Amino acid sequence: xxxxxxxxxxxxxxxxxxxxxxxxxxxxxxxxxxxxxxxxxxxxxxxxxxxxxxxxxxxxxxxxxxxxxxxxxxxxxxxxxxxxxxxxxxxxxxxxxxxxxxxxxxxxxxxxxxxxxxxxxxxxxxxxxxxxxxxxxxxxxxxxxxxxxxxxxxxxxxxxxxxxxxxxxxxxxxxxxxxxxxxxxxxxxxxxxxxxxxxxxxxxxxxxxxxxxxxxxxxxxxxxxxxxxxxxxxxxxxxxxxxxxxxxxxxxxxxxxxxxxxxxxxxxxxxxxxxxxxxxxxxxxxxxxxxxxxxxxxxxxxxxxxxxxxxxxxxxxxxxxxxxxxxxxxxxxxxxxxxxxxxxxxxxxxxxxxxxxxxxxxxxxxxxxxxxxxxxxxxxxxxxxxxxxxxxxxxxxxxxxxxxxxxxxxxxxxxxxxxxxxxxxxxxxxxxxxxxxxxxxxxxxxxxxxxxxxxxxxxxxxxxxxxxxxxxxxxxxxxxxxxxxxxxxxxxxxxxxxxxxxxxxxxxxxxxxxxxxxxxxxxxxxxxxx
Length: 530
Ligand code: GLC
Ligand code: CA
What we know:
The protein is of the alpha/beta class. Among the domains are: 111-158, Oligo-1,6-glucosidase, domain 2, CATH 3.90.400.10; 460-529, Immunoglobulin-like. It is built from 17 helices and 20 strands. The protein has helices at residues 3-8, 32-37, 39-45, 80-92, 111-116, 173-189, 217-225, 244-251, 265-268, 281-298, 315-319, 326-338, 368-379, 384-394, 431-436, 441-454, 456-460, and strands at 13-16, 49-52, 56-57, 69-73, 96-101, 130-131, 147-150, 155-158, 193-196, 234-238, 260-262, 304-305, 343-347, 462-465, 473-480, 483-490, 495-496, 504-508, 519-520, 525-529. An 8-stranded parallel beta sheet has the order 11-10-9-5-2-1-13-12, with helices on one face. Helix 6 (173-189) packs parallel to helix 7, helix 12 (326-338) packs parallel to helix 16 and helix 13 (368-379) packs antiparallel against helix 14 (384-394). The chain is globular, with a radius of gyration of 23 Å. 48% of the residues are buried. Bound molecules: alpha-D-glucopyranose and calcium ion (CA).
């Protein structure tokens, strides 16, 4: 790895979904001032960067992923002045800011689209994809056709997501230039990097029948980030590639494109779609992690370590035990991901074991994807009750309920009614209860992140899998020069794991473990230093 890649291994990134993080003016919606008020909390946890989900001006057809102005802040979240204060406060604490860049589509309320739809010959007419007739029968991500008719032009435009999110036409050089300017604007504002929304879709391959991985994809990524002005940035692209050659084309150091990718192999593990539970999942996840740790190591690529984000219900509720073993599974999952080699991303609330909600009807849900899925499930023959169960399991709303900070009414998120109902488990799972508990997930995260911070082996050292295929646990080594750590993560069932040669115990999640005892209880972890 080169110097730049190595330096990114020092990052620990915390993802904030601003709408649901902290409300300071009691309108029920999180805001930038709320984020500022929690910066000391985040430093205490041990993170040194924030990925901020979109906070640009937006009509919120897809909660900010429909941008109406890339250079202004959503009214509910605050002002550009608040943004300047946030950046200043972050930088003064040594924290980096990763903005969310949404280059594939804008809102239909963006000035470019408002102009574009007026006629076939105006300066913006080719900013989007316009056709006289639909050229395929693609389904939009949140339902319906991707084609929408506009009488003024007597033409159809392409929208891969909601009708309110027209896809930008990157084959128009003016669009490339506009988006470069947006990037530069935020670099000048002080952004240290970007998470790039559905980057694989900015070049389409209509002939191959897909809205992604088109022939000019790398030319466009290069235009965005292969410039002198952007050379220092940390960039992570959301990308549905799972082939190593494809991944290399995005993040090999010599290509000057992206630093790393979010790829989703481990979240998709063994399931047909995200609304259905899967069996024996941690073993599957382990094997996928081993595969990608090895491949990225071999090809000198930067891997991203994450289990949760705003598009998935909490990993612990799908793959761990979020009931009687919530502390144990939360800490086990954290250990098996965040002590690997790569850049850790922690989603808000994960640090105290936020789990999925359970609600009986759709009035408690908000997300476009949840409603689309619900309707499809009912159409396919499920009862309403069965369909709601699926949404409870896999819906994005689970990841978007207000942060439960404490036991006050409103969970310490807001004194007003929140924009989306609080978690059904808010009185049980909140930060205050976690900190008052003997078994605090927050304190475990803090200890784990400090172990990572204080030992170069966890950040820059090599990875080696020790456990083998048939095992129902994960043992791996991290090694740098003469320093070796062995990490043992047991899964659901008790196991016997010989560890007397691993050295001194430096981290554990069952408080009565003394050292190298070989019997491991459900989700028990132990980290040793040789
Ligand atoms: C990405 C975002 C998701 C959004 C979609 C459209 O997948 O993470 O939240 O709905 O892109 O922008
Ligand atoms: Ca607010």
